[in-house]
Amino acid sequence: MKVAFLGLGVMGYPMAGHLLKAGHEVTVYNRTAGKARKWVEEHGGAMENDPAAASKGAAIVFACVGNDGDSIDVATAALAGMGEGSVYVDHTTTSAACAEEIAGRAAERGVGFVDAPVSGGQAGAEKGALSIMCGGSNADLTTVSPVMDNYAKRIVHIGPVGHGQLCKAVNQICIAGLLQGLSEAVHFGSRAGIDMDRVREAVSGGAAQSWQMENRWATMNRGEFDFGFAVDWMRKDLRIALDEAGRHGASLPVTALVDQFYAEVQESGGRRWDTSSLVSRLNKKPS
Amino acid sequence: MKVAFLGLGVMGYPMAGHLLKAGHEVTVYNRTAGKARKWVEEHGGAMENDPAAASKGAAIVFACVGNDGDSIDVATAALAGMGEGSVYVDHTTTSAACAEEIAGRAAERGVGFVDAPVSGGQAGAEKGALSIMCGGSNADLTTVSPVMDNYAKRIVHIGPVGHGQLCKAVNQICIAGLLQGLSEAVHFGSRAGIDMDRVREAVSGGAAQSWQMENRWATMNRGEFDFGFAVDWMRKDLRIALDEAGRHGASLPVTALVDQFYAEVQESGGRRWDTSSLVSRLNKKPS
Amino acid sequence: MKVAFLGLGVMGYPMAGHLLKAGHEVTVYNRTAGKARKWVEEHGGAMENDPAAASKGAAIVFACVGNDGDSIDVATAALAGMGEGSVYVDHTTTSAACAEEIAGRAAERGVGFVDAPVSGGQAGAEKGALSIMCGGSNADLTTVSPVMDNYAKRIVHIGPVGHGQLCKAVNQICIAGLLQGLSEAVHFGSRAGIDMDRVREAVSGGAAQSWQMENRWATMNRGEFDFGFAVDWMRKDLRIALDEAGRHGASLPVTALVDQFYAEVQESGGRRWDTSSLVSRLNKKPS
Amino acid sequence: MKVAFLGLGVMGYPMAGHLLKAGHEVTVYNRTAGKARKWVEEHGGAMENDPAAASKGAAIVFACVGNDGDSIDVATAALAGMGEGSVYVDHTTTSAACAEEIAGRAAERGVGFVDAPVSGGQAGAEKGALSIMCGGSNADLTTVSPVMDNYAKRIVHIGPVGHGQLCKAVNQICIAGLLQGLSEAVHFGSRAGIDMDRVREAVSGGAAQSWQMENRWATMNRGEFDFGFAVDWMRKDLRIALDEAGRHGASLPVTALVDQFYAEVQESGGRRWDTSSLVSRLNKKPS
Ligand SMILES: NC(=O)C1=CN([C@@H]2O[C@H](COP(=O)(O)OP(=O)(O)OC[C@H]3O[C@@H](n4cnc5c(N)ncnc54)[C@H](OP(=O)(O)O)[C@@H]3O)[C@@H](O)[C@H]2O)C=CC1
Ligand SMILES: NC(=O)C1=CN([C@@H]2O[C@H](COP(=O)(O)OP(=O)(O)OC[C@H]3O[C@@H](n4cnc5c(N)ncnc54)[C@H](OP(=O)(O)O)[C@@H]3O)[C@@H](O)[C@H]2O)C=CC1
Ligand SMILES: NC(=O)C1=CN([C@@H]2O[C@H](COP(=O)(O)OP(=O)(O)OC[C@H]3O[C@@H](n4cnc5c(N)ncnc54)[C@H](OP(=O)(O)O)[C@@H]3O)[C@@H](O)[C@H]2O)C=CC1
């Protein structure tokens, strides 16, 4: 199938690669052209210098860029090149309002739209094992799912346009509270001077268990954060969640609080640290 | 082996049962004698009307009562009946200071001590699948572990006396933040009107995953809390965690906040509800 | 002096009235024309049906509308009618970025700009006793201060354009934490059953004293909130404060938390209640 | 009148001095005898080496020591020396339960009791301008008020025994939220780079005004905390407030949170800093 991929960042670069390896005819576009050139050298396929050119003739156009503004810019440009009956898939984490906005513009041109934020991080993108939460019509989902399958371990159709993004917000809300709880536990344990390896052995089989406990406990205890999902991205996502909450009359006290704790992490140099770096503001040594 | 079990509450009743079924010679004591009678009728074994009498001649005495005060009362009474070389095991969730206090009194009489709080809840106690976090000497652990094995799926020796209780505090700290995050996510999803079964399918395989998500998501979404680990117990445990934090110079902002949210749950009638009832204060309908 | 006043809401209506009473030649504009007609009937002066017409020939144009978007819309329309050397004064509470944006557009037309958010509420506007926090050049301040004096008890020049709005954000941040503290105190006192009139007598002369304690204690204790500065406005202002904080690398944990508590107040029917209604979510009776 | 004063700390030393200056016959006791000697050298009067001896024959015994435990120890010792019809006044900040406990023991000996925590700090004690919040009977209040007047600017009879302490808890709850709000405001302003002297001028006349703003703004902006009411004392008092809240079914989310922020201040070296040092954890420079 002829497809385009717009945005070859940490996530998009390997995702686009999986599509090519699966035999699709892939044209890529990246704002900074160097990355696109590198991608073509590594994988083959074609590149173009603007979204419209890259999207011309594609049955599906995938995008994975930055925030709401970026998403709308790239989509608007791409739609100009897309033909009726094609589908635009946005893997960017954005607001639901942004998804609806792009879907509206796509509809005007007879183009389908699926909001399809992902979880699984860089590792998931590279291994082709992302979870994808989708909003859109059944028809559009039917078109795009088999192609997304090349980098997904799980694709769930949540509901109409925007619901993929709302599902991603749910995901991030869960993580914020959970990571702060875990951070306080790790901080407490370190201050109390107990053997945290044994603690993990004791508690990881029960009601306190979490993916973060299994995957971040050791690094949090060692104060290592130089990997994973960056605090800057997390704050963007929490901002979206808090704004959506405002729209829907939901109250998210701990999410809002943790978002401010992340501000402290950013200020102490952690903009690119993994989200588990929440523990760093607690573990600070007296200066 | 001749053993005693003191406190036949929700947890102790089935735990003592497992010991008898495993062939140990069990004498039970319960403050309210009716429960002890019922236990003996159901399981066989013997009962006594005070802790000292029940503990006389026992190689190991197990207790599972309420809070610090209860724990010290029962232990003090029991130690009067215990012989040199025997071991006292406290399954109650208490402070580390309480464990140290009892260990000291035990030592004066040549009795060993293990603090051995459990997780796994009523179901874990009944199925004999508790996780037990232990503080004490290697020698005492070696004595008591094979017996505890009858109701444990996991026994971890964390460190010296008190470290079992500190480990339990870590467990509860993890849960407090995690459950508030989950509550906010469930609340957000319900207000946003998305299909929460599909959301769970999408998010439960990744970084937001937790035991609570797997085991409480459906009931939280339905507003069912009439089971599980009671809010009153949780507040007792969080109080312990916050006091220990004060002692060790740790700061637990979200734990302290969630503890206050539990106060609101208690006031709205939820003293015996499961800890996942945190979501109820968010989901309240306009009155 | 020939002046215009745009936006005759709760605040603007009496402010514009003070200008007329002071002898200025006032032309008013209000989106909903009925309010402008009522104003002219009551005070005299002139009205126009669009901002540009109202602003034509005015030496100073004052506006007091809703949020950032409203502010930019009204300013853009008004500037089209304003002559070189005139000054636009925005009394709306907006972001500093919004102030800078309007100042930029004004400068292009040779028009001065002052951001001049106010505090003092409806009562302050009616009595002509507002505090005005200004951002702009000395020259522009010199032009507009004598005119604003007609409804001000205090005019402070904080700094360049935007600094008036940042000062207002400081004001609202102070209030959010303070009112939550006061709410918890009132809630605590009512649950503990102590005589809150005597408590106020005892504590209002010392380190716990605040304007809110002096002016809201009695109504908070009685659960009366049908007056004052509305929760909806407060959330708008806290949103601005939190966004500015993000821009400047500041962390506002309690402000963010209280903002979410206000979401609960809104949901329980309090969108138009006074900001002291924070106490209502604590004092809820078990349902 | 023959009186005794037990505890010559920061508060008690000058309070006892005012009594002597007013012509009362004062016997003092202090655990560390050196302070009592110094006091007698400075003021005259008598000293004794234990509370009972100091209290012998006194019509009123005043105490101002540390926490609940200290309070009960000193009171118990003193009561042994007190005669029927005398009154014991406890100026220590304690729990209401502690006040009731001491009142009960006093009653057994025919001794009256007034809980009389103070506010106003060291300066208030030295100037004789404390606010005193009292719990006790009308008769006991009538006896002790004229004597306390020598160091009070305000004496309020809140209610029966314990209500003085509950009133003090209300006072501290107000301050915790208020100071955190003020800290966030000061932190925000410093990051935003606005002129904080002018901001204070603009906001201190309105709804954001507070005693803390008037008396701590300048020092908070300069990062000076080497004076005032110590963080260690504040945490003791907040612990009392949170415990009382638990007893009365009140929820104090921000009080609990701020208490944990104070833990961070303690860890960074601020145990003896003024309570306004909350701002220090926000203003930390990237390390
Ligand atoms: N329930 C759960 O899911 C879990 C509980 N725990 C912990 O286990 C402990 C027990 O919990 P659980 O079994 O649920 O509690 P229950 O309330 O069901 O049982 C408490 C038991 O302790 C006895 N008891 C309490 N105080 C005294 C006292 N002063 N003197 C003598 N006996 C006393 C009670 O006797 P009587 O029958 O006379 O009241 C009863 O047998 C607690 O510390 C709890 O935190 C830990 C993990 C999970
Ligand atoms: N109320 C208070 O106590 C205080 C309010 N403020 C701030 O002052 C501002 C005004 O508040 P208040 O007077 O209470 O608000 P109101 O809602 O009473 O009035 C708002 C005014 O703005 C007009 N308006 C809003 N949006 C637009 C638009 N897009 N185009 C044209 N006109 C518009 C409204 O017109 P229409 O009549 O057609 O709706 C109305 O005249 C707000 O920024 C508020 O935060 C500051 C301090 C205290
Ligand atoms: N400082 C302040 O600004 C304010 C303090 N308070 C409250 O007043 C009380 C006293 O505060 P402050 O004067 O500052 O405290 P200090 O630490 O300066 O003094 C405490 C006094 O109590 C004595 N003391 C403490 N424990 C015992 C004990 N177990 N037996 C005998 N004597 C004891 C100390 O004796 P020794 O000299 O031997 O140590 C000392 O005289 C506290 O409850 C505090 O919360 C209330 C309002 C303001």
Which characteristics define this entry?
alpha/beta; HIBADH-like_NADP-bd (chains A, B, C, D); 3-hydroxyisobutyrate dehydrogenase (chains A, B, C, D); Rossmann fold; oxidoreductase activity (chains A, B, C, D); NADP binding (chains A, B, C, D); 287 residues; binds NADPH dihydro-nicotinamide-adenine-dinucleotide phosphate
Describe this structure in words.
Chains A, B, C, D: One of its GO terms (molecular function) is NAD binding. 4 copies of one chain form a homotetramer. Chain A has 287 residues and is an alpha/beta fold. The first copy, chain A, folds into 2 domains: 2-159, 3-Layer(aba) Sandwich (Rossmann fold), CATH 3.40.50.720; 166-283, N-(1-d-carboxylethyl)-l-norvaline Dehydrogenase, domain 2, CATH 1.10.1040. In chain A, 56% of the residues lie in helices and 14% in strands. Chain A is built from 13 helices and 9 strands. The first copy, chain A, has helices at 12-21, 33-43, 51-55, 68-79, 96-108, 121-127, 138-148, 163-192, 196-203, 211-222, 231-248, 253-270, 278-283; strands at residues 2-6, 25-29, 46-48, 60-63, 87-90, 112-115, 118-119, 130-135, 152-159. In chain A, the strands form 2 sheets. The first copy, chain A, has a 6-stranded parallel sheet, sandwiched between helices. In chain A, β2 (25-29), α2 (33-43) and β3 form a beta-alpha-beta unit. In chain A, α8 packs across α12 (253-270). The mean pLDDT of chain A is 97. Chains in contact: A-B, A-C, A-D, B-C, B-D, C-D. The structure holds NADPH dihydro-nicotinamide-adenine-dinucleotide phosphate (3 copies).
